[in-house]
Amino acid sequence: MTGNQNCITYLKGDATNPKGNDPRIIVHICNDIGKWGKGFVLAISKRWKSPEAVYRAAFSSRQNPGLGEVQFITVDVNLVVANIIGQSGIRTPSDTKSPAPIRYAAVRKGLQEVAEFAKQENASVHMPRIGCGLAGGRWEVIEPIIIETLIEQGINVCVYDF
Predict the structure, then answer these.
(1) What is the pTM of this model?
(2) Reduced to 3 states, what is the DSSP secondary structure of residue 74?
(3) In the 8-state DSSP scheme, what is residue 57?
(4) What is the number of alpha carbons within 13 Å of residue 91 lying toward its C-beta?
(5) 72/125 Cα distance (integer angstroms)
(6) Which end of the chain is more exposed for a tag (fewer CB within 10 A), N or C?
(7) Can you say whether the dihedral through the CA atoms of 151, 105, 119, 25 is positive or negative?
(8) Strand partners, 112
(9) How confident is the model at residue 1 (pLDDT cuts 50, 70, 90)?
(10) Do residues 123 and 30 touch, judged by C-beta distance below 8 A?
(11) Residues contacting 67, CB < 8 A, separation 6+
């Protein structure tokens, strides 16, 4: 589902249930320390066990994926989950003094890898507002990265607000 659409499509709904039957990639942000259990990853784990299993296995085998790396996990016919390592560590909701763990350069690097994969698979990309929850990112910074890395490459992107 690649095309010349020059904007992100915003939809109300669940990013773990992306619209369409074409090849689709669900993108989300993970941290670089092996912690999985809060935020959007809970919705991923509720639907599929393999994205969490692949993520945890990388850390338990000491093959810790670095910032900007992406794990692509096929979860169904024409459906892949992309775990982008785009967050350095974690912070608690009560910790307002520490810098946000989001790493915009890592998000950009990961989305560039997603773009290459999406072009190979002729896939659309689906996501919540990545990096703006527990990672503490700002959408006004993330959105232009999505436009640069995906939209300008002719990849259709749908962002879901639950």
Answers:
(1) 0.94
(2) strand
(3) H
(4) 17
(5) 13
(6) C
(7) negative
(8) none
(9) very low
(10) no
(11) 32, 85, 86, 88, 103, 105, 106, 109
**Phi, psi for 114 (deg, rounded to 5):** -60, -40
Cα–Cα distance, 83 to 148 (Å, whole number)? 19
Residue 145, H or E segment: helix 139-149
Instruction: List, for residues 104-124, the tens digit of each pLDDT value.
Output: 999 999 999 999 999 999 999
**Is the Cβ–Cβ distance between 26 and 157 less than 8 Å?**
no
At 107, which amino acid appears? Answer: V
Cα–Cα dist 88/152, whole Å: 27
In CATH terms, 9-161 corresponds, of 1.20.1250.20, 3.40.50.300, 3.30.1330.60, 3.40.220.10, to 3.40.220.10
